[in-house]
């Protein structure tokens, strides 16, 4: 078998395990709950079921997904390597003519399909519901692209956490800390810094965009508000200096780069570690 065929075999194995454990159904249920709640809130706030109502719904769902996707990605990956080590899967795998990197790549691609697949279905449903509104399609597609790169970033981080942890409990705690730091603590730290130190808009954007979640959130804002007026002076600087296109590119490229770097970090640890224990 070639390397591509082995990766494909591992991918089918991981997907079968995800379907057998009903993980895909759970992820879909979480997204459906978030989608339904924000659809209700968006329509409740809007008096017109048209551009304002549907676009607001898609924007609210996109912001909710920015919070939900990192959590789902970390939960689905943080124990993968630890569990494979303790259950004897690696011992069985090492007895076969395969490489560790091939399994890791297949596992990451399968998790990406599990995390993003339900989002594709939900966004298609939004496009069908807004068939008469041409402005919703680009918004939904950009939001899906941003969610995909964000999922890739936190899947890579989750695999790195799993490779660096010796126990499942430690992997769970570390993944939750990563999620809290990226979703909430980073915002609090940045706000506290801005209250104490006066900084130029470029530095504020750089500190915010270091966090892949914030980079994706700012990029989502460009979809509905290209001028980024809601961000005040920072938004004015972004609109005049970088522009919506470069802000969107940053929101797509930076999480993808973070996820790729974390994946190679997990690969390095996996290749050097003793997988039988």
Which secondary structure elements does this structure contain, and how are they paired or packed?
Blueprint: H1 3-20, H2 23-45, H3 51-77, H4 80-87, H5 89-94, H6 100-129, H7 136-164, H8 168-196, H9 201-209, H10 212-224, H11 233-272
Helix pairs in contact: 1-6, 2-3, 2-6, 3-6, 3-7, 3-8, 3-10, 6-7, 6-11, 7-8, 7-10, 7-11, 9-11, 10-11
Explain what the structure shows.
This protein has one domain. The protein is built from eleven helices and no strands. The protein has helices at residues 3-20, 23-45, 51-77, 80-87, 89-94, 100-129, 136-164, 168-196, 201-209, 212-224, 233-272. Helix 6 packs antiparallel against helix 11 (233-272), helix 7 runs antiparallel to helix 10 (212-224) and helix 7 packs parallel to helix 11. 38% of the residues are buried. Mean pLDDT is 80; it is low at 47-51.
Any descriptors?
single chain; 277 residues; globular; mainly alpha
Q: Give the total of domains.
A: 1
Characterize the biggest β-sheet. Answer: none
- Termini separation (Å)? 28 Å
What is the radius of gyration?
Answer: 20 Å
Tell the overall outline. Answer: globular
Would you list the SSEs in sequence order as H and E? Answer: HHHHHHHHHHH
Indicate the low-confidence ranges by residue numbers. 47-51
- Beta-strand share of residues: under 5%
Structural class: mainly alpha
The count of β-strands is 0
How much helix, percentage-wise, in residues?
A: over 70%
Given the structure, what is the number of helices?
A: 11
Overall mean confidence score, pLDDT: 80
Explain briefly what this protein structure is.
By secondary structure, the chain is mainly α. Helix content is 84%, strand content 0%.
